[in-house]
Design goal:
This protein is mostly helical. It is about 70% helix and about 0% strand. The protein contains eleven helices and no strands. Helix 1 (about 5-30) packs antiparallel against helix 5, helix 2 (about 35-50) packs antiparallel against helix 3 and helix 8 (about 185-205) runs antiparallel to helix 9. The relative contact order is 0.13.
Length: about 260
């Protein structure tokens, strides 16, 4: 079931959230707080869809819980990572290119753009919330895939944070734990979770919502995730080229000799 009026309510909620986030960025003089808002956008969208639905189904309740666990964990992790550090290098480069008008332009170039992307990606959340079919095998498969993804994302983040806390890690490459089997366990995990949400949407009858996880996966692989990160990391860590040769970029697999 697709309801454009409910869907637009989600967009309105996201617009309000990023507007507040943009005002906060002006006060803090750093726009990288948008990264902490990213996952919360989906939690807010899901909550808006649940609020606008005619009835709150067991699937909607379950979905809201797992989206909330993922969103809050990721938001807190990214927020704490910024404490005591200057603005992320990506946004510093954008600020330098943008000149004096960057602060105002960031409202639509950064905050607004991410709100629209989150709204488009959130379509399986809409389908899962509005569907009235009872919980079925696809829902449980979706939750299982979400759990696998959560382990990869949260576990990968935890392992990387411990590695970076070690003295002398600046020039080294993290190749242990989950990072031994994929160069980006956190991005792989994020994709798994979104395809898990889609399975729940399919169970609700919303098979048409596949563009949401497809767009998220594309962003993780080609735009803001793997491609963007690996464009610069090789210059900062000389041993990364060998790591690339031995380790899969996205899907986990055995190390190459």
């Amino acid at each position: 079931m697709f309801d454009i009026h409910v869907y637009l309510q989600g967009l309105g909620a996201l617009a309000a959230l990023v507007s507040l986030g943009w005002l906060a960025s002006l006060a803090l003089k750093r726009v990288d707080i948008v990264d902490s808002l990213w996952s919360l956008m989906f939690l807010l969208a899901a909550a808006a869809y649940v609020h606008a639905a005619d009835a709150i189904t067991p699937r909607a309740e379950l979905l809201l819980w797992i989206v909330g666990i993922w969103a809050v964990r990721l938001s807190v992790y990214l927020g704490l990572r910024c404490v005591g550090h200057e603005e992320d290098r990506r946004y510093r480069a954008m600020r330098a290119r943008g000149g004096p008008g960057f602060a105002v332009a960031s409202l639509w170039r950064i905050f607004g753009l991410q709100a629209v992307l989150a709204w488009l990606i959130s379509v399986p959340l809409l389908g899962a919330v509005l569907g009235t079919a009872p919980l079925g095998p696809l829902d449980y498969a979706g939750v299982a895939l979400w759990a696998v993804g959560f382990v990869f994302e949260a576990g990968g983040d935890w392992q990387l944070a411990r590695f970076k806390a070690q003295p002398g890690s600046e020039d080294k490459v993290m190749d242990q734990g989950l990072w031994r089997y994929t160069r980006h366990p956190n991005y792989f995990g994020d994709a798994c979770m979104w395809w898990g949400f889609w399975l729940m949407a399919v169970s609700a009858g919303a098979w048409w919502s596949f563009p949401g996880p497809a767009l998220m996966t594309f962003l993780l692989l080609r735009v803001s995730g793997v491609t963007l990160l690996e464009r610069s990391i090789g210059k900062r860590r000389p041993a990364y080229a060998e790591y690339v040769r031995q380790t899969n970029a996205f899907f986990p697999g055995p190390r190459k000799g």
